[in-house]
Specification:
- It contains 17 helices and 15 strands.
- By secondary structure, it is α/β, with parallel strands linked by helices.
- Helix 15 packs parallel to helix 17.
């Protein structure tokens, strides 16, 4: 049955009657009606009424190679015809996850040798928690099970993912988190740096919060520290370059595993295949998903370092964990084709050497001086715009988050899909964006800011 046989109003009515959306106030949505996205091409998405929007969020951080890639559809179709599904249980495998694992190890940071598959970043973080705690149990230290995370972190929305994350509203709804997870300060200098404190010194102070948490619990009780290299859903919080090397030093000093959540930052987003390479660290686990398939299929991959992998293999015993769709052959076929496109078109290098620097320059020159903007920041093709009432004092509009929603709505109305997170507008465009696309985005963002200011200062 084709959706084209339905009007927008009919689709909205059916949506409101039967479809529960993620992270949504359903009362509010059903009063307004959902926007129905019907097709997409390159960097653009189109709604049911034919409106074209420049997609500044790559879907949901994921559509790295853009929309309408026949090569990815063909890879899925070919695999579906040959073998649409078989599981990875019962000592079985299929060719595509085998070959994808080899490819991922080739592009991953040094020291990564194994891969475990799921269907989402949330699943991958569940796996990471289970695996890390299982590792220490195999090492004869089951009491070493505390995991340190950060406030305002996002690690998914399963029970374990929500518990790992540091978002209080999610914790409140959960009503009972996974035990032995604690949260420390985030490395966000704009709000947390002391007067006169340099970025370098702030990064070291933020890292010391991790050390303090280890010492408070006792190193013999702490399994790992987990963090997003750049905090994504929390508002593209970019740490100083001093932060991650110091965190790694602290983890090694106290024999604490280092877990990176690269669900958003993996596969070229920061100008390297992985942000671990951008920040010069060697983690024990790397959680990935999203751009692994450019969103064309659901797939996640937990990259596992040699230390954990060797213990898991050499000490044996069942790792009692897995999913029906772990290593799904179709999803893995799409991932292989997607990684080939990223490599063949030089998208990682383009972000590092061309579009990433130009993106930073454009935000700084065309957006930063706007009266509503307290700060712009970016790393590779991730960006953020802080919305403030007063640039000098950093005073925000009240209630918190209300102003960014006004900016977002004006942006969408003027052909620019952006996301509002708290008082922050965030950007994570497809890696295929060019300088011309960045110019177009800045024009539309500036217009949205002007219109929002007129509304907010009435």
């Amino acid at each position: 049955m084709s959706y084209q046989n339905y009007s927008l109003k009919q689709l909205q009515q059916i949506d409101a009657s039967h479809h529960l959306h993620p992270f949504t106030d359903h009362k509010e949505l059903r009063e307004a009606g959902s926007r129905i996205i019907t097709r997409a091409d390159g960097p653009y998405i189109y709604d049911s009424e034919g409106n074209e929007l420049l997609d500044g969020m790559a879907g949901l951080w994921c559509v790295a190679v853009g929309y309408g890639r026949d090569e990815l559809a063909d890879a899925a179709y070919k695999q579906m015809k040959e073998l649409p599904y078989y599981n990875s249980f019962f000592k079985c495998s299929t060719p595509t996850p085998v070959l994808l694992s080899q490819k991922l190890v080739e592009i991953a940071p040094e020291g990564v040798s194994q891969v475990f598959y799921g269907s989402s970043g949330s699943e991958a973080n569940d796996t990471a928690v289970r695996l890390v705690r299982h590792y220490w149990a195999l090492e004869g230290k089951p009491e070493k099970n505390r995991i340190i995370s950060r406030k305002n972190a996002y690690h998914g929305s399963t029970v374990a993912g929500t518990s790992l994350g540091g978002m209080e509203a999610m914790h409140k709804q959960l009503g009972g988190a996974v035990p032995n997870i604690v949260h420390v300060m985030m490395p966000y200098a704009y709000e947390l740096a002391l007067p006169g404190e340099s970025d370098h010194d702030f990064g070291l102070r933020a890292a010391k919060a991790v050390e303090d948490a280890i010492l408070e619990a006792g190193a013999d009780k702490v399994a790992a520290f987990i963090g997003e290299p750049i905090m994504g859903a929390g508002g593209v919080k970019i740490p100083p370059m001093s932060y991650w090397p110091e965190v790694e030093r602290i983890c090694r000093k106290y024999d604490v595993l280092l877990m990176l959540d690269e669900v958003i930052t993996g596969y070229g987003r920061t100008g390297e295949w992985f942000a671990a390479q951008s920040f010069g660290v060697r983690p024990d686990t790397i959680t990935t998903a999203k751009a692994l398939t450019s969103g064309y299929q659901p797939l996640s991959a937990l990259l596992v370092g040699d230390r954990i992998a060797s213990t898991l293999v050499e000490k044996g015993g069942e790792f009692a964990h897995g999913y029906t769709y772990s290593g799904h052959p179709v999803a893995c076929a799409v991932a292989l084709a997607n990684i080939d496109i990223i490599a063949r078109e030089g998208l990682v290098e383009r972000v590092k050497n061309d579009t990433g620097p130009y993106f930073a320059q454009a935000l700084g020159e065309r957006i930063a001086d706007h009266p509503l903007v307290g700060e712009v920041r970016s790393f590779g093709l991730m960006g953020a715009i802080e919305i403030v009432k007063d640039k000098t004092t950093k005073e925000r509009f009240s209630p918190s988050g209300s102003a960014a929603v006004v900016v977002r709505d004006h942006a969408i109305d003027n052909g620019m899909m952006m996301r509002a997170t708290g008082d922050t507008m965030i950007l994570s465009p497809p890696l295929i964006w060019t300088r011309d696309t960045i110019d177009m985005a800045c024009e539309r963002i500036r217009k949205a800011l002007d219109l929002a200011e007129a509304d907010l200062r009435r």
